[in-house]
Amino acid sequence: MRPASSPLRLLLLACLLTPALSGCRYAYVPLIPKAVEVTLPARVTTAALTREGEALVLRARVEGRFEPGYLSVAWFDGPRDLGRDSVYLDAAQRDATFRLPVPKPGAYRAVISFGGTVLRQVELYEVQP
Question: Superkingdom of the source (predicted)?
Answer without folding.
Answer: Bacteria
